[in-house]
Every structure is written in structure tokens, then in C-alpha cells.
Write a structure and sequence with these properties.
Shape of chain A: globular
Oligomer: heterodimer
Helix content of chain B: 25-40%
Number of domains of chain A: 1
Number of helices of chain A: 15
CATH topology of the largest domain in chain B: Beta-lactamase
Largest sheet of chain B: 7 strands, mixed
Strand order of the largest sheet of chain A: 1-2-3
CATH architecture of the largest domain in chain B: 3-Layer(aba) Sandwich
Number of domains of chain B: 2
Structural class of chain B: alpha+beta
Number of strands of chain B: 23
Structural class of chain A: mainly alpha
Largest sheet of chain A: 3 strands, antiparallel
Shape of chain B: elongated
Chain lengths: ~375, ~625
């Protein structure tokens, strides 16, 4: 009687975790643990409650679990609908959206949502669906169609204005397009042009950052961000202040770090948004280069695993989707660490599974769930 | 179904391969960067972290002044020496430090409480005042012992001061230390505002704000008065001690607010009330400028600036006189007979009466089995419209109300502003009650309560029944009448002044709308009002006035102003009638109208009209009553 109850419980327990990719699960658990440990230190003097962080982590896990149970076929069927729904929401935002801090990004439907967040998932879904449909009969003009599918939401989001999210959604789509086989002769010129542009900005930084030079297509504050990256001391009180301070925090951490809860820079309130976008500075200061190598190894393992899952996925849709989601994780991590360590301009990108924040965690959980689902259903489809 | 076409798979796996290399490269870049920061440059950053911690110290902006219409400053700032403690440098127990300090300077329990609260609110970052307004002796004593208290210093700080203390307290309001709730509200304001650079707004706005307007004009003009705090970027040592200022961005002082109020008139009226409670509003009808806005009794706003002590707070809060209650803004009273001129005008406009139509008044009016009495036993005899106003004949208006019905009255009175918010530049205005059948249906729950009874209409005619208005509404209504139906929004502030250039920007609202009234009808009413002060109920009060003023007395039965609280323990005094008075002067070209109530004072003619007379004497002729202490400019 009792034994059967235990067996039953064991069975239920196993069925809950069956199908969750063990490797991916352990990596994510590791990241979440790092995130939580750092969060405790970072939020020491802030009004953010750690119960909220726990709840967000749990929510993220639940979303991941649910999505991992959804067969990729369903996602494929729903792709167009999700994408269409996302576009509809973005148009609704443009018309009725709430304005906060000068940007129209939110929609009030009883509670406030940010539809551009949905697009981060909807975009790779839609494009992967499209390329799956055109598999084997792919023509050059298909990339034109893909560009339109990609361009509409990106422009809508860029207009809000939310350049950071627009770039991430753009990247998510571009990953699918490139992986689907966009010819190298089209890719390379852009890479060359980009590199050339970056070199130009670095060389002529002083000239184009002069006060009266107006950059086309970007807001004044966005120009400002690029310019303060080139020379953080030009704006010691604004964005430059953040970069200088987070660099001091990271640099002073040294090889072994100052120890958990021992970070002086981050605890003296020099680090802005230290439990969200700048949490890496807190971690770096307290756990040093050693900790950073562990963290980077975790991220690298996450991406390797994600790409491996994608490579062995059953069809083009799942392959493209899985790889794009994985590369988005990479982009988040790279852009965030790059920005906090002063390599990249300051844009609002969280560090995956480490930064505090419900929406991002849920989106990330969704992405991880997709990977798990692809992994889980690989055999089912093949056999 | 599943296709593993060879070329596709190869192409995809090839690209995955490239992606892996790309990712690896990027990670190597990050590792390089981190090695650069944490190994190669570690000593440099460690030094920076140890010795050159940079702190951003907010520099509060000077708050704008409050200035009356004649340039008298009624809200200002002064600088005083305070004992400041740098939270980062407190070693050990806070209470012990304060105990030690209190041997040198006086530190009250309230100072201690306030200081500890700021410490908690700020999460122990920054410098906070422990004791303000140090005396010279205290300053000297502290300087001699300074070495014993690292992190404690004397600094000059700016404080808000209301030089006339209680004067005009309800319209000025006060400022107080910013609370968490205030900050959340301001954050929400930022988020809904439009600007090019959200970050700049954020950075320049919240952290340096220490005080915020809590009520009155200090609250409603907060965004004008506050200015933008600046910052000093300060190098501090590991111990948090400031070494030098690296750069600073100056604060932008708040703008001055120029009131439409004549503060001398305000002072006079407040004195005239003596120990009576009540409300008084005077308006310049052509502009909507509020000339005086009195709520008695009042309180001293200076008590609130640095956090009010619990004894004073309890006294103010528990007093049956309700000194914190903004009577002209929130208190609702039945208008009593002051309503009659509006009723008469309605009768003319709606063609229900002609001026010469008369009634015979036996001293009462019977409706159903209820008798409505006139205040004069035996009645006023034959009463035409003018006489009905001059002698304040109730029976005339019982009949009129019955003939008009509640909804016709409602529709006529609404544009005058009765039972409507006037939109004055203060928060928390009461709407009052202008009854109609619709109103009753929406207000009550039970069906039998929702029904309008004919009998309820009768007493509306004499400004009783459900009628309940603020004194502000009554004054506004009079202003609209005086202004021949042109409605100006009443306001306490007429201009915003730049503190440097002294340039003034008018904020005076434009005409709201016009009530379509026949000029000859208005003339009839104004003539009757003039007659009230010549031969009517307030004739004796206005004898010998050097101008022609129209007026109307009123007496209202008490049941409003939070009657619930007065029901049981209240003394008989609180049950006496309220005395009301409204006036327009000069009657042919009005420059001032006023409405006032003296609570529980009895007859309007006896207690309310004399206040009006003296206020008008001063405003129109500059005469100052002998019994009132002279106005003195604040030092």
C-alpha cells in the first residue's frame, strides 16, 4: 500500500522531468543558481524582494516545462497565427499604446504587456515556418519575402522607439534567414560594410560626436550612447558614469574577486540597475575573473548544447527554430556582458537567467522550453 | 514526412559549424576583455575603487516663492545652519552617536526620530540633517568638538518658511519631506510624460528631491515651484569622506507663483472672523481672480515643513473646530436665502414670473398636509419680486419652487456652477449637491428613496432641502451673475514668474462659457440686491457706505459639514444656524463679489454682513477697521 504510493509519487516525479533535456536542465539550473546568489547580494539595499525573484524563476521554469511538452508540430501550425497576433498587437500599440518615458511600447489590456517581447519568439517561429514550407523549392525571391516578414515588426518596434528590442528581433530573424541558406555573396558585403562603419566611427569618433552633428535616423540619446562608449569620460554623470563605474567594479574584482557580499563598488550604489541589466558588474566584482570564466563556460555550454539539439532536430522548421533561439541566448549574453564591460553601447538587454525581471525570464523560459521540446520529440518523429 | 535531403542538411550543419566558431570568437573577445579588466588593469581599477570612489551628491533646487497680487511674499526660503551626518561614516550604533552629540547640541526626540527615518528611507546613503537652526553657541561648541565626530559637519541648508504663519494656510498648503508614496507618484508622472531622452529626465528628476508640496498651492503648483535638482560629482574616500568636487551640474531653481489673492484683504477677513468658524471667498468677476480665500480656523503650515510633532498633530486633528478642514473648498452648506436672487432670475428667464407679479403672503404656505413657514409671523403682505428679495420673503419662493419644479431649477442653476466643481487650482474640491430627480435616483439605493416627492421641491426655493454648495461655488455663482453670464474659471494663481528675469507668464484661464441671460433681467436682480443694502435686511450694516453694493443675507439650518461627527457629543453651539452673506460691489460695474458663511452664528444680517461690509470698505476704499490690528509686513 505504502510502497505503491511511493512508487506512484516516483512515477509522477519522473514523468514531470522526463523529456527535459538533462544537460540543458543542469546548465540552466547552474545559471539560475548563479543568478540567485548574485541577486541576493545585488538586492541587499534595494526594495526588490527575493520572494519575487524566486517566483519569477519558478514561473520561468513552469513556462519552460509546459512548452517542452508542446510538440513542435503544434508550434509550426500556430506560427502564422502567433506572428499575425504579434503584428496586430504591435499595430494596436502604435495606435492605443501607453506612453512611458517618451516611448510607446506598452498595451493596457487590464494589465500592461509589451508586445515586442512576444515578437522575439514569434519572429523565428514565423520565418522557420516559411522556410519549412519552401524547403526544396527555395528561390532567391524567397529571401525577399523573408525580408518583408522580418522588416514589418522590426520597423514597428523601431518606431516605438525601442531600438534595443528591434535589434534583437532583427537578429532573431536574421539568424533564421542566414541558417536557412542565405548566399554568402549577400552576407559578406554587409559584414564588410559593418566593419568599415565601426572602424570609421572609432577613427572619426571625435568629429561625429561633436554637439552640433545630427545623426540621421537615430534619436539624440542613442547617438549619445555610442559617443559615451567611445569616450566614457565625456559624460561622467550620465551613461558614461554607468560604464566607468561598472568597469571599476569589474576591474577591481581581480582574479578571485572580493567575495560574496563583499563588493564595495556595487554596494556603494555606484552601479545603476545593479540587479537588472548591470548585475554582471556585481557578480564580476565579487567572484572575479574565476567566477566570470565559470559563468562564460556555462553560457558557452548552453549555446553548444542548443546548437547540438538543433543540429540533430528532425526537420528544417525545428532546426531553424532551435538554432535561432539558441543564438538569441548568445546575443543576450554577449551584448549584456559587452555593454557592462564597456565593449558595446549601453542598451537595455538583460543577462539571460541572471538578471532580475519577470518578462525576460518568461521569454527565456519559453525559448528553453522550445529547445527541450525539440530534443524530446526528435526520436518520436524519426521513428 | 521527414526529409533528410543530403544537400540541405550539409548546408545547415555547415552553417551551424560557422555559428559555433562565431560564438566561440565572441566569447574569446569577452574573455580577453575581462582578462584585460581584471588581470592586466586590476591594480589601476583597484586603486580607483579604493581611493577614488565617485559619488553623485544631489544639490536641491531652490523652491519658487509664493507672491500675492501686490508683490508680498507669503512663501519663501531661508538658509540656516544644520548639523549634518554622513550616513556612510556612522560607525557603530546610531543612537550612541546621537547621545554623544546631544551633550553638545540640543537634539529633541523628534529630531532623532526624523533622522532615523531618513536613514532608513535612504538605505544609509547620503548626508542627512540631524538638527536644524543651530544657535551660535551650539555651532561654536560643536566646532570645538568636531574632531570627535567624523562624518558630522555643519552646513547651510535652505528651508521653507511661511512668514505670516497661520495666514492663508489653507490656500498655501505646505511642503513636507518626500515620502515613498510621493516618489512612486512622481515616478509614474515621469513615465507618462513625453521627452526625447527618458534617461536624462529620470536622472535629473527624482533623487535630489527632498521636499514636496503636500496640500494647497504648494501641492497643485509643485511642478512649477520645485525646479530641477542639480548634482555634484564628488570624489570620496573609501570611508565615504568627500575629497573634492569633480564637476557639478547646477540646479535650476523653481519658478515663482504669483497669486491673484490680495493677502491684506485675506488677513483682514481672517481677523474679522475672530473665534468664529467659517469660509469666505472673494472673486474679481471679470477675471475669475480669487481675491481672498478664507477658511477659519486655520493652522500654522510652518509646523508641517520638518515633520509635525505628534502633540500638535493630535491637537489639530482631534479639535472639534476642525482647523485642518478646508471649508471654502470642501465644506458644503445650504445656501439659505442667498439662493433667492438666483431663483428670481430663473423665474424671469423661464418666464414663470414678471417683476410686478405679486403674491399675498399670509406667513406660511401649505402643501399637502405640511405647512411651510415664513420667518415673519403674519407674513410680508403683498410681495412682488423686488420685495421678495429685499425682505427675504420665503412664501414667494415656496410658490415659485412649486411652479418651477425641481428639474427646471436644476437645469437653470447648473451653468452657474452650483453643485459642480469649479475647477479651481486646488485639489480636493467638493462637488456639493444640486438636486434633481435624476440625482435622487442615482444617489439612493432603495426604490422608495429614489422617488422625488413634490414636497421636497418646496424648500429648495429658499436654499434649503437637499441644496448643499461650497462657499466657493456660491461666490463663483455670484461672479457669473455679476459678470452678466460670462463664466470665468476661478483661480488662485494668476502668473508664473521667472526668478531671474522677473518675467511673468499669465496663467489666467480664459472665458469658460456664457450663460444666455437677458440683460434687463440681470438689471432687475442687481437692483433688488442693491435695495437689500439700502432698505432691506442688511440696510443698517451698509449705512454710509461710500459705494453702491448689492447683497443678500442668508441663514441656513445646520445639517451639513460632516454633521455625523457633530451629532452626539456636540455642544449646543454646533447646532445653531449658519449665517451667510453674498455681495456684489460696486453694483453697476462690479470689481469684487464675495460669499461667506459664519458657522453657527445665527442670522446672516447680524454676523455675516458686517464682515462683508468691512472687507468691501477695505478693498474698495482702503478703510481699515479700528478694532483689527494693523497689517505688518513680515521681516
Amino acid at each position: 500500500m505504502e510502497k505503491s504510493a511511493i512508487n506512484k509519487a516516483k512515477k509522477i516525479f519522473l514523468s514531470i522531468f522526463s523529456g527535459l533535456d538533462r544537460q540543458l536542465g543542469l546548465i540552466l539550473l547552474g545559471l539560475a543558481a548563479v543568478g540567485f546568489i548574485t541577486f541576493l547580494s545585488a538586492s541587499q539595499n534595494t526594495p526588490v524582494r527575493f520572494e519575487d525573484e524566486l517566483r519569477n524563476l519558478a514561473l520561468s521554469f513552469i513556462v519552460m516545462w509546459i512548452v517542452s511538452r508542446i510538440p513542435p508540430k503544434w508550434l509550426e501550425t500556430a506560427a502564422v497565427w502567433i506572428y499575425g497576433f504579434g503584428i496586430a498587437l504591435l499595430i494596436a500599440v502604435a495606435i492605443f499604446g501607453l506612453i512611458k518615458k517618451g516611448a510607446r511600447r506598452w498595451l493596457n489590456i487590464g494589465f500592461v504587456i509589451q508586445p515586442s517581447e512576444l515578437m522575439k519568439i514569434a519572429m523565428p517561429l514565423m520565418l522557420a515556418w516559411y522556410f519549412q514550407k519552401r524547403e526544396g523549392i527555395l528561390k532567391s525571391w524567397d529571401y525577399g519575402v523573408a525580408a518583408i516578414i522580418l522588416g514589418i515588426p522590426v520597423l514597428l518596434i523601431a518606431r516605438q522607439p525601442d531600438l534595443g528590442t528591434a535589434l534583437l528581433v532583427f537578429a532573431a530573424g536574421m539568424y533564421v534567414i542566414i541558417l536557412a541558406g542565405l548566399p554568402w555573396k549577400w552576407i559578406l558585403p554587409f559584414i564588410g560594410l559593418g566593419a568599415f562603419g565601426i572602424i570609421l566611427i572609432i577613427i572619426f569618433g571625435n568629429t561625429i560626436c561633436a554637439q552640433d552633428v545630427v545623426w540621421p535616423l537615430v534619436h539624440n540619446y542613442q547617438k549619445h550612447r555610442v559617443c559615451t562608449l567611445l569616450d566614457p569620460s565625456s559624460d561622467p554623470l550620465g551613461k558614461g558614469f554607468h560604464t566607468i563605474q561598472s568597469m571599476i567594479a569589474i576591474g577591481s574584482g581581480g582574479f578571485f574577486g572580493k567575495g560574496w557580499f563583499q563588493g564595495t563598488q556595487s554596494h556603494l550604489e555606484f552601479i545603476p540597475e545593479k540587479h537588472t541589466d548591470f548585475i554582471f558588474a556585481v557578480f564580476s566584482e565579487e567572484f572575479g575573473l574565476l567566477g566570470n570564466l565559470v559563468l562564460l563556460a556555462l553560457f558557452f555550454a548552453l549555446i553548444k548544447r542548443g546548437l547540438a539539439i538543433s543540429a540533430s532536430a528532425p526537420n528544417l522548421f525545428t532546426r531553424l527554430l532551435g538554432a535561432s533561439v539558441t543564438l538569441i541566448f548568445f546575443t543576450y549574453a554577449f551584448v549584456n556582458i559587452g555593454m557592462v564591460s564597456g565593449l558595446l553601447p549601453v542598451v537595455g538587454v538583460p543577462l539571460p537567467f541572471i538578471s532580475y525581471g519577470g518578462t525576460a525570464l518568461v521569454t527565456l523560459g519559453f525559448g528553453a522550453g522550445i529547445l527541450m521540446s525539440i530534443h524530446r520529440h526528435r526520436r518520436l518523429v524519426q521513428s | 514526412m521527414v526529409s533528410f535531403k543530403k544537400p540541405d542538411l550539409d548546408s545547415f550543419q555547415e552553417r551551424i559549424h560557422i555559428a559555433t566558431w562565431f560564438v566561440t570568437l565572441c566569447f574569446l573577445l569577452l574573455v580577453t576583455r575581462l582578462v584585460w579588466l581584471q588581470l592586466v588593469s586590476h591594480s589601476k581599477y583597484a586603486l580607483l575603487a579604493e581611493n577614488n570612489r565617485i559619488a553623485v551628491v544631489p544639490a536641491p533646487a531652490n523652491r519658487g516663492l509664493l507672491i500675492d497680487r501686490n508683490g508680498i511674499v507669503i512663501g519663501r526660503n531661508y538658509s540656516a545652519l544644520t548639523l549634518d551626518v554622513n550616513a556612510a561614516e556612522i560607525k557603530g550604533n546610531v543612537d550612541e552617536l546621537i547621545d554623544d552629540l546631544s551633550k553638545i547640541v540640543l537634539i529633541s526626540p523628534r529630531d532623532r526620530r526624523n533622522f532615523k527615518r531618513s536613514l532608513e528611507d535612504s538605505r544609509k546613503m547620503g548626508t542627512f540633517p540631524l538638527r536644524s537652526m543651530l544657535t551660535e553657541a551650539e555651532t561654536a561648541r560643536f566646532m570645538a568638538n568636531r574632531y570627535r565626530f567624523p562624518g558630522v559637519e555643519i552646513r547651510a541648508r535652505s528651508f521653507r518658511e511661511y512668514p505670516y504663519n497661520e495666514l492663508a494656510s489653507h490656500l498655501i498648503g505646505y511642503i513636507g519631506r518626500v515620502s515613498q508614496r510621493d516618489k512612486e507618484r512622481m515616478q509614474a508622472e515621469i513615465e507618462t510624460s513625453k521627452t526625447d531622452d527618458p534617461d536624462a529626465l529620470q536622472a535629473s528628476f527624482l533623487p535630489g528631491i527632498q521636499y514636496v508640496g503636500k496640500i494647497g498651492l504648494e501641492q497643485s503648483y509643485e511642478n512649477v515651484l520645485r525646479g530641477v535638482p542639480g548634482y555634484d560629482q564628488v570624489e570620496i574616500t573609501a570611508g565615504g569622506k568627500p575629497v573634492r568636487t569633480l564637476s557639478s551640474s547646477p540646479s535650476i531653481p523653481g519658478k515663482n507663483v504669483v497669486l491673484s489673492v490680495d493677502i491684506k484683504l485675506q488677513y483682514l477677513v481672517e481677523q474679522l472672523y475672530g473665534n468664529y468658524r467659517g469660509a469666505f471667498v472673494a472673486i474679481e468677476p471679470a477675471t475669475g481672480d480669487i481675491l481672498a480665500f478664507v477658511s477659519k480656523p486655520n493652522f500654522n503650515p510652518n509646523d508641517f515643513v520638518e515633520g509635525i510633532d505628534s502633540v500638535t498633530w493630535k491637537e489639530l486633528n482631534d479639535s472639534p473646530q476642525k482647523p485642518l478642514y478646508n471649508r471654502p473648498l470642501k465644506g458644503i452648506y445650504p445656501p439659505g436665502s442667498t439662493y433667492k436672487p438666483f431663483m428670481a432670475l430663473a423665474a424671469l428667464e423661464k418666464k414663470m414670473r414678471t417683476p410686478s407679479q405679486s403674491i399675498s403672503d399670509p406667513g406660511y404656505f401649505e402643501f399637502g398636509n405640511h405647512t411651510f413657514r415664513d420667518d415673519k409671523k403674519g407674513g410680508h403682505g403683498i410681495v412682488d419680486m423686488q420685495k421678495s428679495i429685499v425682505e427675504s420673503c420665503d412664501t414667494y419662493y415656496y410658490l415659485l419652487a412649486r411652479d418651477m419644479g425641481v428639474n427646471m431649477m436644476h437645469d437653470f442653476m447648473k451653468p452657474f456652477g452650483f453643485g459642480q466643481v469649479t475647477g479651481i487650482d486646488l485639489k480636493g474640491e467638493s462637488k456639493g449637491i444640486l438636486p434633481s430627480t435624476e440625482w435622487k435616483k442615482n444617489t439612493f439605493k432603495k426604490p422608495e428613496q429614489q422617488k422625488w416627492y413634490e414636497g421636497e421641491t418646496i424648500s429648495l426655493g429658499i436654499g434649503q432641502g437637499y441644496n448643499a454648495f461650497t462657499i466657493l461655488q456660491l461666490a463663483h455663482g455670484m461672479a457669473n451673475l455679476a459678470n452678466n453670464g460670462i463664466v470665468m474659471k476661478p483661480h488662485l494663481v494668476k502668473a508664473i514668474e521667472d526668478p531671474f528675469t522677473r518675467n511673468r507668464t499669465l496663467t489666467t484661464p480664459k472665458e469658460s462659457y456664457r450663460i444666455d441671460l437677458a440683460p434687463e433681467n440681470i438689471e432687475i436682480i442687481k437692483k433688488a440686491l442693491l435695495e437689500v443694502n439700502i432698505s432691506g435686511t442688511s440696510a443698517s450694516v451698509f449705512k454710509g457706505a461710500g459705494y453702491q453694493a448689492g447683497g443678500k443675507t442668508g441663514t441656513a439650518q445646520v445639517f451639513s459639514l460632516n454633521s455625523k461627527e457633530y451629532n452626539h457629543g456636540a455642544t449646543a453651539e454646533f447646532l445653531r444656524d449658519h449665517a451667510l452673506y453674498v455681495a456684489i460691489a460696486p453694483i453697476d460695474k462690479p470689481t469684487i463679489v464675495l460669499a461667506l458663511v459664519v458657522e453657527n452664528a445665527g442670522f446672516g444680517a447680524q454676523h455675516a454682513a458686517p464682515i462683508a461690509r468691512k472687507a468691501l470698505d477695505f478693498y474698495l476704499e482702503g478703510k481699515w477697521p479700528k478694532e483689527i490690528p494693523e497689517w505688518k509686513r513680515a521681516p
